[in-house]
Structures are given as structure tokens and as C-alpha cells.
Amino acid sequence: KSLDAKAEHSGSTVASADAAAAGSKVAVGAALALNFVNDITTATTSRNITATEGGIGFSALSYANSSATANASASGAKASTDGGKDDNAESQVNKQLEVDDSKNSQANKDGVAGKAKTSEGNVSIAAGLALNLVNSKANASLSDGLVINAAGQFKLASTNETDAAAIASGEAVGNNPDVPPAKIGVGVGLALNIVNTENKASIGAATVTAKGIDLSAKMADPALGGDGFSNFKAEATAGAGATNVGLAGAVALNLVGTNSSTAAIAANATIDAGTGDVSITAINNTKSSTIAKAVVPANPDAANAKVGVGVAFALDKITNVADASIGDNVNLTNAGNVTLLAQSNNSSDTKVTTGAAGDLSVSPSVALNIVSNDTLASIGKGGLL
Description:
Order of helices and strands: EEEEHHEEEEEEEEEEEEHEEEEEE
Shape: elongated
Number of strands: 22
Oligomer: single chain
Mean pLDDT: 81
Distance between the termini: 30 Å
Radius of gyration: 25 Å
Helix content: under 10%
Strand content: over 45%
Structural class: mainly beta
């Protein structure tokens, strides 16, 4: 008589490494928190469907919360001795992934490759390294070539709200009086938040006969844990460095490759709306925060470093898309009211604080936003609607 198929996901994934809690008892060594998350929620069909009395609907609903938090020990990480090409943050991550034999191992390596860097090159070994690598998709779809006949409404609904954070701190490095200056290593804090999200409700080049069409790609329902926004956060705090170097950089990278909400009828689809309304809605709301803090060390011995480096680099790079569309050459007949709504609310906040100490101080400060917000409501070429 009718069909309602729903795939629903609500998840929380947390990785935490806290070496600072042990105080001076921990020797030189990095604290790494690595979080690799794949959340895929799909509602679809591979066959033709007829509903003789009611409607047909597919819903893919997702809310995902993930975070990685790393706090370095008071001794920090061991500084590079030869400046080799493998003495960097990416190599730190890859060494841990060598024990991962899952099907996603190579994909995780590829996801990190080339990301842990600034305009000056690769980020060196970090005392506190937090990596949060997230791939989150919600997809409610009807594939090309299928045929749907419904006495009621045909509905495709997707929701995807993704909260993702990476927080790294080397603040404890060089700031514990119980740790001799000679035993203090690198105090670099690196927070790397790498996210790709997709939220999609789409009819392919299919044939649909129903009493009204409703396509929606929205933010998650509060019942799943959402607040109406995807929140992306990268925060890095540096500590003091070794007394002969004073290396204390804070690097916060918020890298959101694509964050898209799409509701669409694809090109060449044939739609008979049966005098019902046609509604196509895409909503994309985000809040992005990227903070890097490299402060002057409280430990006076660390402050007497021969070279003090207090680099703070914060980068927020994100592409947000809200797209509600009817493609080229769609044959849409017997429609009542036709409504396309693409709506977005996107904000980005990027901050840096620098600090350096020593006979020679180098304290560059860079806060960089590379943000693209595309909000589109469009009807392609073709005949009369």
C-alpha cells in the first residue's frame, strides 16, 4: 500500500591522549590522539516500486560528533637530530597507521597526506598532535532508470550534521619546575581537523508518478543530537621548547574539503506530480573556529633559550554548498506549487596569539581564512514546467 524506508544514525567518536596529567614523571615523547571516522547513512532502492494507496519515502538521517584531544607531557617531544625528511608530523601519523590493516588504512593515509603543513613547509614533530579525520555522508536517492508509482507523495529526505574538533596542547612543555631544562624537548602543538561531509536527497534520470514531490537536505533533528549547525573546530596551544632551541609552535588547521547540502532532480528525469506541490529544499549551516596560541613560557629557564620561536599559524579552509535544483531537460508535469529553497548560514572565526623568548626571538603570526560559500537555487534549460 505504501512504503517508508528510514536509515538513522547518531554517533560520538572520541580519541584522547593526555600525557600532561602525569606531570614530570613522563619522559620526552609525543602525545598523539588520532581519530579516523567514516559515517555513511544511506536510504535508497535498486528496484521499481508501486504504492497503490499511500506514498513512498526514503530518509537518511545522520548526526555525528567526533573529537581528538592531545595534551603533551611536561618534557615535550624529542627534537629532530638530523632534520631528515621523515622528522615531521605527517610521519608521526603514518608510523601509527602502519599497524592498521583495515580496509580504510590507505584511505586514511591519503586523507592526511600533504595536509600537515603551512606556507613554510611541513610541520615538524609535534609534542601534542591531535588529528580528527572525518568522512560523513547521508544520502537518500533514487537512481537512474528506475520507475516509481505512488498514490500519495514521493519523498526523499536527508539530514547530516557533523560536529568535528581537534584540540592539541603543548602548554605543559617547559612549564613544570620539576623538569630540568636539559630534559625539555619540542613544545609544538598541532591540531588537524580534516572533514568531508555530504548531505544529499536526489532523483536521478528516473520516472516518478506521485501526488506531490518533496526533496529535502537539511540539518539534523534535535532528537538525534543536532543544534542546527555543523561545528568545526581546530585549536592548538604551544608550550616552551628546549633550552637550546625554544621551539614552541602552535599550528591549527581546520580543513573542510567539501561540506554540501544538495536537493536535486537530475537532468532528463520524468516527473508527474499528480497536481501535488513540488518542494526542493537544501539547508547548510556551519560554525567554524580555528585558534592557534603560542605563548611566552612561564618557566624562566625555558625563557633563556638561545633561540626562541613562538610561531602561531591558524588556517580555516572550507567550502560550503547549499544547492536546490531542477536539472536540464527535466519533464515536470501536473505540478501544483513549485518551490526551490537553498539556504545557508556560515561563519568562520580564526585567531592567533604568538609568543617567543630567548636571545633571538622569531614570532610570526598568521591567521588565514580561505572560505567559499555557494548557495544556489536553479532550474536548468528545457521545455515549459
